[in-house]
Ribosomal RNA large subunit methyltransferase M (Larsenimonas suaedae), 357 residues
Amino acid sequence: MPNTSPSELLFYCRPGFETDLVNELVDKFEHSECAWHPVATPQSGYVRMVIDNDLVANDVHKEVQLSSLVFARQMLVAFEPIVLDRNDRITAIIDQIVAAGWSFEELWQESPDTNDGKGLAGLKKSLQRPLESTLKKRQALRRKAGKRRLHLFWSSGDTVQVAMSFPQNRSEWPNGIKHLRSPSRAPSRSTLKLEEAWHTFIPSDKWERRLNAGMQGADLGAAPGGWTYQLVQQGMYVYAIDNGPMSEELMRTGQIEHLREDGFTWSPPYPLDWLVCDIVDRPIRVSEMVERWLVNRWCRHAIFNLKLPMKKRWQEVKRCLEYLEQRLSDENIEHECLARHLYHDREEITVYIRLKE
């Protein structure tokens, strides 16, 4: 008989960062009553958090907000994996959902962000309509079900996890990935990092207030202008700080003042709206530089990348974030701080800090 109560949380991440996500989860659930152990295979692109005591997975899920996690792309309540009969992949899935008594408004089929995972696209497509049809007949897939979403996570062609996500504590993008098209006129593909950061950290109904023409910003380590391009697209006037050359086409917009100075020592002539920074340097040094800007209130919003070491990546992230939190608290500066390992990031994470008015 299928289990009637889910016993796991399932997290998606970038392949190769499974250990970093596990270390983060250990810290996040340090004071929880939940006893658990991780199941994580290197380069798999996901982590299973298996609950070992009698706590309900739905309740454990509520203890942590996905937005507070750095290395997780998605967080789901899940049953243990089902190994399927390749001659009938549907029956066992339906039986599990019916036994759980789940109802939901959407069905998403997903797989790891790996080459093997991408190779399952045909299988998922072939099963979508038969699954939806059967689930509607069983009254599990319905129009009004609290905006709950069913996820079928295929780790291989014959292994699937039945999982659920809930509004306000999940990613609204398939696989937790915001796919973007690189603008043809952007000086570099790094431009996608900043664009994805805005989509990740700034709610759509806040864009007009936080990103608009008439604002001014600084891009530290700007050359050749990938991040400056995004600021210009929002109509901002930009101080581009870098000893290297900027894109000539970008400079012709008339919205940029290029200063060949050191981004770590330059200070603005007056307070700005935005600071962005993608400088390659030690994470703590970048954090100290951003802290100086925020404590002096030289900007109201900051987005910056922290380049990670090869080992103990979560520990270094935690160190930098705790340093910034402590310094801003010491100065009684109310703020919001979010950090995420974005899809367009590689060996780095992106941090957003907003000073509250």
Observations:
- Residues 291 and 324 are 6 Å apart (CA to CA).
